[in-house]
Design brief:
Layout (H helix, E strand, L loop, with lengths): L4 H11 L14 H11 L16 E2 L2 E2 L1 H4 L1 H10 L6 E4 L10 E5 L8 E8 L5 E5 L4 E5 L13 E7 L2
Antiparallel strand pairs: 1-2, 3-8, 4-5, 4-8, 5-6, 6-7
């Protein structure tokens, strides 16, 4: 099965400011939302029932990588089966349906994830997100109270 970016973006647009009752909602919901978008695009799950393995959501149970920003970052960096991604070096290399991870403190702990839904006139990503529900927000997140001058980004192009 190939990843359907259009379906993933449609899902992101539908649920950016509310919660799909099929899934649990979390106080810190950014990664759960990104995972739902990826799944809506047909990204394959694997690892169930081991919470620390793979990327999955089954019967209101889930892997750490489904809901924890830091865990999804490490999953996307290393997965060679199921949902896979390639790290790219700049934001303009991303397409709608891709993922951006944020380390606001620059300390190696990834605290936030967003989902690319469009590109602006300069070919830069616009993202949707949960926790602070956002639509078509500029990818750098400099308007966030969490953003610092130490912020680091990871850009993942989804390949399956």
């Amino acid at each position: 099965m190939s990843y359907n970016r259009e379906a993933a973006v449609q899902y992101a647009e539908k649920w950016w400011n509310s919660y799909n009752p099929v899934y649990m909602a979390f106080e810190l919901d950014c990664t759960n939302y990104v995972s739902q978008c990826l799944r809506a695009g047909g990204a394959p799950m694997r690892g169930h029932p081991n919470r620390s393995s793979g990327w999955w959501y089954v019967n209101r149970n889930w892997s750490f990588s489904w809901t924890v920003a830091h865990s999804l970052y490490w999953y996307l960096r290393g997965s060679t089966t199921g949902l896979r991604a390639h790290a790219v070096s700049t934001a303009d290399q991303l397409l709608p349906g891709d993922v951006i991870c944020y380390d606001f403190n620059g300390d190696g702990r990834w605290q936030h994830n967003t989902f690319v839904v469009a590109k602006d006139s300069n070919n830069m990503p616009l993202v949707n997100a949960h926790t602070v529900n956002s639509r078509m927000r500029y990818w750098e997140y400099e308007d966030s109270i969490a953003w610092t001058t130490d912020t680091k980004y990871a850009f993942f192009h989804i390949v399956s």
